[in-house]
Amino acid sequence: KPLVEIENVDMRYGGADGTLAVSGLDMSVAKGEFAAVVGPSGCGKSTLMKLVTGLHIPQTGVVTVAGSYVTKPVSIVGMAFQNPTMLPWRTTLDNILLPLEIVEKHRHRLRRHKAEYVEKAEALLETVGLKGFGSKFPWQLSGGMQQRANLCRALIHEPELLMLDEPFGALDAFTREELWQVIRDLHAAQGVTIVLVTHDLREAAFLADTIHVMSARPGRVVNVHKVPFPRPRE
Ligand code: ADP
Ligand code: ADP
């Protein structure tokens, strides 16, 4: 049974007469798969991500994650979207700890083992090249740095499913390739399932096991190119 299953989904913004953003969307992602989603701008990639994470509920069709219908934001998911959304009144470290406060089963663990989680957040910051930036506020970080901090936030609660919507967009080429390696290692070591939206075919080919191609709007997945899965990793 796939970890993520989208069946015949239509999603309109602004109610029944609104903009059709995706239409007849079918997609499934196996447990442990690293899926890339590519397609022209406006075809509905971000909408797809928001459907899987429970930020949007479709008018037609079903979305399931780990066998449950998605009807509200899903707790086993970590997400990092294109536009960094850090809370400006919190330090970077406290932003990264946020999912632990939101996911109920982590909340009391966070209270009892705060020092451990702080250590873990600091280790994540180091992995993405932000060692020592935990005490800074979002406005003290560049766009690319905020994006990297967002990635730490997506990972802090060790999600089973990681949803990444162009998470490397604001990064310089050098940092981007470093983060590719971070994500790739994470996938290889922990077997987390990943869905990555990207405009960069080189990125998709380097990272993903499968490439799901969406057609022009209203988007549907028209083609799934499977890189051999599981893919041999050197
Ligand atoms: P992509 O991520 O592939 O660029 P999106 O999922 O953002 O595509 O958008 C799909 C379509 O839905 C586009 O036509 C876009 O303009 C429209 N759309 C996206 N978000 C909204 C919104 N909040 N309200 C109305 N239309 C939207
Ligand atoms: P992305 O490539 O991330 O989809 P967009 O420029 O399409 O970026 O959308 C940025 C934000 O604006 C998203 O939150 C999207 O939901 C919203 N948006 C996109 N198109 C529209 C629209 N036509 N009307 C209202 N909101 C929109």
Can you walk me through this structure?
By secondary structure, the protein is α/β, with parallel strands linked by helices. Helices cover 34% and strands 25% of the residues. The chain contains 8 helices and 10 strands. The strands form 2 sheets. The protein has a 6-stranded mixed β-sheet with strand order 6-7-8-3-9-10, sandwiched between helices. Strands 2-1-4-5 form a 4-stranded antiparallel β-sheet, with helices on one face. The protein is globular, with a radius of gyration of 17 Å. The two termini are 28 Å apart. The structure holds adenosine-5'-diphosphate (ADP) (2 copies). One adenosine-5'-diphosphate is lined by residues 13-14, 19, 21, 39, 41-47, 217.
Features:
234 residues, six-stranded mixed sheet, four-stranded antiparallel sheet, globular, binds adenosine-5'-diphosphate, ATP binding, ABC_transporter_ATP-bind
- Report the span from N to C terminus: 28 Å
- The coarse overall form would be globular
Name the strands of the widest sheet in spatial order: 6-7-8-3-9-10
Biggest beta-sheet profile: 6 strands, mixed
State the gist of this model:
With 234 residues, this protein is an alpha/beta fold.
